[in-house]
Amino acid sequence: MVFDLTSTRLVLAGNAYGECSSGGRIGMENVTSVVLTRWHAGWARTLIAVCLAPAQFSCWTDCNRRRIEVAAEADPRTWALALAVADAALAGGLPARTEGADSYYALSMTPPADWARAPARHVYADRWHSFWSVRPRHAPPVPGVPNISVQAGAQTAADALNDAELVRLGGLPHPAAFDTDVSA
């Protein structure tokens, strides 16, 4: 199966599923909140670019991506939940549990991520991840990053940005561009 990396909804769902499928709705909402925080802070121009950025979310490495590609068939209940989380995110309906965290690491990591110390601030933890604010709360905006609210209809605007970015880049990056194994 070829996974559609041009669909904001599917990439958000894939990221939620790949990063925290064992965490149910709450765990997937929490990691998706980090994606939204990064996008609003200008880490990338699109939600897709935030999810697929090299060395950010380990679920997109070659060895882990396969789980996402087969999730609809192999784990339909959890995949449906991931889609519901993506839909809620795009409609602006995610709970604000992670207090603006822009980073997290799995609690199973030993030792914890190197970046998880001052000046970064620990802001939240669930049963699966420790959430941190690494960038200053009021970091300057990134030039060229539109101020689009993730509300109803924003998926269309985000998809238009993704299309423009794909045209600019000449298509999807080679999958090897995402072949890293660094947790978010």
Structural key phrases:
184 residues, mainly alpha, three-stranded antiparallel β-sheet, 7 helices, 43% helix, globular
Written account of the structure:
The chain is mainly α and 184 residues long. The protein has one domain. The chain has helices spanning 8-20, 24-40, 47-52, 62-69, 71-74, 76-90, 154-169, and strands at residues 103-106, 121-125, 129-133. It has a three-stranded antiparallel beta sheet with strand order 1-3-2, with helices on one face. A hairpin with a 3-residue loop joins strand 2 (121-125) and strand 3 (129-133). It starts with 7 loop residues before the first helix and ends in a 15-residue tail after the last helix. Residues 138-184 have low confidence and may be disordered.
Our count of domains comes out at 1
Structural class: mainly alpha
Give the SSE order as H and E letters.
HHHHHHEEEH
* 3D shape: globular
Short summary:
The chain is mainly alpha-helical.
What's the SSE blueprint?
Elements: H1 8-20, H2 24-40, H3 47-52, H4 62-69, H5 71-74, H6 76-90, E1 103-106, E2 121-125, E3 129-133, H7 154-169
Antiparallel strand pairs: 1-3, 2-3
Helix pairs in contact: 1-2, 1-4, 1-6, 2-6
